[in-house]
Amino acid sequence: MEISEKKSEFIFLILLISIIVGLPLGILAYDRYLWPHKTTLGAREFTLTGSAQSGWLLGEVQAHDILSFEKRQRSFQKPLIEVSKGDLVVIKLRSSDVAHGFSLKAFGIYLTDQIKPGKTAFVSFKADKVGTFVFACNVFCGGIHQNMKGTLVVKDR
Amino acid sequence: MSRKKTWLVILLTFELAVLVPLSLAFLPITPRTHKILLEARKYGYSPARIVVNKGDTIALSMASADVPHGFFLDGYPLELINKQGVTFRKYTWQDHEGKPIVGWDRVSSTKFVAGRPGKFTYRCTQTCGNLHPFMTGELIVRPNTSYHLLVSLSIWVVFCVLFLIRFDSPTRFSGFKRINILDRLPGLKRLVKHRNFQFLIILPNVIVFYLFILSSLWGSPVGNRNVAIIFVWILWWFVLKAIIVPLGGRIWCMVCPLPAPAEWLSRKRLTTVKYFQKPFKRLHHRFTGLQKDWPKKMDNMWLQNVLFLVLISFGMILITRPIATAIIFLIILGLTLVLALIFRQRVFCLYLCPVGGFLGTYSMASMTAVRVIDPDICKKHREKSCFAGGPGGWACPWNQYIGKMSRNNYCGLCTECIKSCPKDNVGVFFRPFGSDRTLRGYDEMFNVIIMLVVAIAFSITMLGPWGFIKDAANVTESGQIIPFLIYLASIWTLALLIFPGLFALTAKGANRLAGRPADDRTVTLKLVYTLIPVGIFAWIAFSLPAVMINYNYILSVISDPLGLGWNLFGTADYPFNPLYPEWIPLIQGGILLAGLYFGLSRGYLGLKKLVKNPSMRIRAMILPSLFALVVVNILLKLYMG
Ligand code: SF4
Ligand code: SF4
Ligand SMILES: [Cu+2]
Asked: Do A97 and B564 make contact, defined as CB atoms within 8 angstroms?
């Protein structure tokens, strides 16, 4: 059976559109729901991205962010993470350039493996004491390494 | 001269060419010890080159001026990492089950004997920033016999070609007769003639390039963790240069997804043909848009030449920053769409695409060509469906008339004429390397020379050990505007003034030596053909190390294209483990020699018809041969010396 010209054009058009829509959706869905590095239910999740020039940035740094000025502006303020006492906190750690590290002394967290660019590392802990704590980078990464710090605030419920 | 004698001369001179450099290796040397403090900083080492004699001992201590760096020495089992002022040396041993185990020892200085002669590159192993993959230095262990050997062999190649020219026979260098692939493979013919053929082979590329664009916008900002950088500038570039161009020429244009949306839009069709009985402006189709003709004045490659130079001026940035790749792709997509609405046919590909420029000139040498089978049939066929469009296929989208086509330059191998020709008179031919030998004008000549200069410039910038040149090219990070401008000025003047000027003088001299068989322009355009094979092979030699060293990145982005920490196929953490890196210089040298041979022999074939007198032919070839020899030796020096 010959498929009519009109029909085949239509089929290919549908194919093309489904690729254009499907590919980004597929990537998003895979990253969010299928990729097994998923965290415990009910945890407070944060993403921190290390940058040798800007220190810790809250959230992901994507390729296009290099262009935007905003991210650079943010470099002057150190990130602040606020949770309540008793929360289970999960921090997803990423790097936007070179290898970084992570330490949060107050909770005894020292990431021994480096946070390599293009990879993801996780730390999780129970926020069982109230106060203001400092987290930092524990791999010498050049740039503003000495100043690559951020604040964790644990409030009483 | 008889065949036997000819081969005897070639063999004897070959032995001479091998023995001279080999005997140099037996000069006596007394071993000594070199104390070397190697300081690493983004993106180079100092000293950038370490030169020792074979048998010398090297006592190496390492320091870093900024972030952690590594030291991986090709050909020697030595790998160091320096972080926070401490150096670690890698060691491996086998546990009782024979499994290799890797450990790191803290060391202050490492001693090793340079027992193996040649050139060995040391490379950084810690992702230390944007240009990390280009952070290298060189250890030269003298006597560098393989380098001497290749230099001597390059002279030998020139001698042999000139010698063969001197005692020319009618069939010399001519190769085999072209073969119509479609005749041999009827299955392929049916496939190519199918209306859906081109769309279906573009489709996978649409997916892949769409992924590149998505990843270069939303993926990891780190180049060697982003599929757009690794696949486009390492894998695609290598495959294009080493396989697609020499074998298939413009076959990339057949599958290129970037101009496809514009073409679909202007045709308002994805696969089928819309044929009108009555021609409109000579064509049997109606396209969307204004359908203007491209201005006659701009019907040349100058725009492409300039755009290519602009693009490579930012080459270092382009191949290390994903976002730059996104910008290039989006600009190209946008331009093709806009231009398709104004002009008719593929004007972007013909006149603007920076890659299309060299694909055109290099495809002259390629082994595949779409041509008519019998030109007489075309002469008698009044409709010329291939050019004006027919019920079976669109009018040639590249605005070529295949009935008279004799060169590959501007045929995009789109296979439309194969479908539209009602006489079944179009074939796809497999032919000897270097078959189209006439350049049309100075625009094409400049393209050839620009490509050669850029191959040399990139070899210096990207493969060389000089950190300050990398800093100049990496202006957006280093902020060194003045060095960057000097860098640009040198590339542009070398490509547009010095090399073309030197070549023009060479050709002029050659013309005079040969007793002026034709005007300078004709002879120059004939002789410049020698530089096409030389250029193709130079680019292959340039792109090869990228895959041999960095193939692990290809494997890891397959599992994690956007650098999100995925591991689709279990290869995401494939370790950095270069493939026979100590052999790279020798392989590059061999590739360059092949280019030299093909350049001279094919260039000579082009000249042959022009110069009738055999003894004049050899006189015409002497100067261009020397020019090609010098170019090849510049590259040999860079890769091996
Ligand atoms: S349609 Fe076929 S026969 Fe006619 S001119 Fe074109 S290639 Fe030749
Ligand atoms: S000559 Fe034929 S294959 Fe070449 S671009 Fe034109 S239609 Fe396509
Ligand atoms: Cu480095």
From this structure: no
Same domain, A84 and A25: no
What is the average pLDDT across B311-339?
Answer: 95
Query: What domains lie within chain B, and their CATH numbers?
Result: 33-143 (2.60.40.420), 179-430 (no CATH), 439-640 (no CATH)
Same domain, A105 and A126: yes
Identify the band that residue B531 occupies on the pLDDT scale cut at 50, 70 and 90: very high
Residues paired with B368 in a beta bridge: B430
- Cross-chain residue pair B67–A142, CB shorter than 8 Å: yes
| CATH number, position A64 | 2.60.40.420
Residues from chain A that touch B220, judged by Cβ atoms under 8 A, are: 62-63, 96, 117-118
Which spans in B103-236 are helix H?
145-166, 181-184, 186-193, 197-218, 227-229
User: In the prediction, which pLDDT does B302 show?
Assistant: 96
Rounded CA separation B45/B137 (Å): 6
What is chain A's pLDDT, residue by residue, as a tens digit (157 residues)? 456 888 999 999 999 999 999 999 999 999 888 876 656 677 888 889 988 888 888 888 888 888 875 556 555 678 889 999 988 998 999 998 888 999 999 998 888 778 888 888 888 889 899 999 999 988 888 767 888 889 999 998 7
Which residue lies with its CA nearest to atom 4 of ligand 2?
A: B411
Distances from the Cα of B291 to the Cαs of A21, B140, B338, B501, B620, in angstroms? 31, 60, 12, 39, 47
CB B413 within 8 A of CB B251: yes
- The continuous run of DSSP H or E covering A109 comes out as strand A109-110
Task: Quote the ipTM score.
Answer: 0.92
Which residues form the domain of A61?
44-155
Angle at B303 between CA B259 and CA B341, to 5 degrees: 40
